[in-house]
């Protein structure tokens, strides 16, 4: 499936269905949804109990009859029915307003650059299930590149990293298309699991979900952070609550393996680029987008590992949906965007 810029301008709703968060922009109304991609359902009746923030707060704290579901994984819909129910609950009323104005609902959505036909179809079916008559798909790196103001339509190289929840997409764009790209299993969730695993193996302690992120932020947030952080968890053996002190260096060691995978992927993407584009990139460096781009120290580590300049996009978590909105609004010059 391919979409032209004209097709994109006809869209009235832009959807970035992410593993961590769902973001929706409506033409003329701006960002109307920015909520966790989470649904809580009653397993006995099948009824929807909560979506978004409310459902995310229930995760890890539910009784047996409530199941908390994440219908999107790695940027692709893995549970179409739940994704539809979630989107309907999040945007249903707002879309009814458009329908009342007899706006023919055309939607544009992001899709990972390496999504297979089934994954694309799942996104299309999710959106048609909530009332879209036609769905255009744009690969996430292109959308994020446009969203953070990169001149992706020009014959110049732009390197973009989309740092999501479980994966990071690395892409070099030129003339509106992806020249070379790769994906690595690194994101906020990977870092989360690395920290949990480390504390479990080293201190025999299971950390509650809510403790991981503050611990990681506190210990890697600043170059000068030398203090140890105290965390409360459940002892793996006794099952009782216990507190331990964690060293910042230990957290850095725990998150090193996934970060090494990222630099390897950047190198392999550069390897597949023509030398002219690599020369452009040596001057311009790369831009980090996606929520995990906010991981403290990520830009610095990438600078050290690649020797390239690294820029953090403004509001990196919104780059992709903002890029879709820019396309809908016709705010980019015509180019042959690689859309699927
Ligand atoms: N301030 C922050 N510091 C560190 N990590 C952050 C911050 N804000 C968000 N994150 C991480 O960013 C990730 C979510 O990013 P984003 O919203 O771009 O993902 P997504 O688009 O839903 O995921 P995907 O692209 O994998 O489908 C989460 O793992 C979250 O922990």
Strand-helix topology:
Blueprint: H1 5-9, E1 13-17, E2 21-26, E3 30-36, E4 39-42, E5 48-51, H2 52-58, E6 66-69, E7 72-73, E8 76-77, H3 80-100, E9 106-111, H4 117-128, E10 134-139, H5 140-147, E11 158-163, E12 168-174, E13 177-184, H6 188-203, E14 205-206, H7 209-220, E15 229-235, E16 241-246, H8 248-271, H9 275-284, E17 286-289, H10 298-306, E18 310-312, H11 319-328
Parallel strand pairs: 1-9, 9-10, 11-17, 17-18
Antiparallel strand pairs: 1-2, 2-3, 4-5, 4-6, 7-8, 11-12, 12-13, 14-15, 15-16
This protein binds adenosine-5'-triphosphate.
The site of adenosine-5'-triphosphate (ATP) has 19 residues, from helix 6.
Structure description:
- Forms polymers.
- This is Cell shape-determining protein MreB.
- By secondary structure, the protein is an alpha+beta fold.
- 39% of the residues lie in helices and 26% in strands.
- It is built from 11 helices and 18 strands.
- The chain has helices at residues 5-9, 52-58, 80-100, 117-128, 140-147, 188-203, 209-220, 248-271, 275-284, 298-306, 319-328, and strands at residues 13-17, 21-26, 30-36, 39-42, 48-51, 66-69, 72-73, 76-77, 106-111, 134-139, 158-163, 168-174, 177-184, 205-206, 229-235, 241-246, 286-289, 310-312.
- Strand 7 and strand 8 form a beta hairpin.
- The longest helix is centred in the last third of the chain and has 24 residues, at 248-271.
- Adenosine-5'-triphosphate (ATP) binds at residues 18-21, 74-75, 164-167, 187-189, 290-292, 294-295, 317.
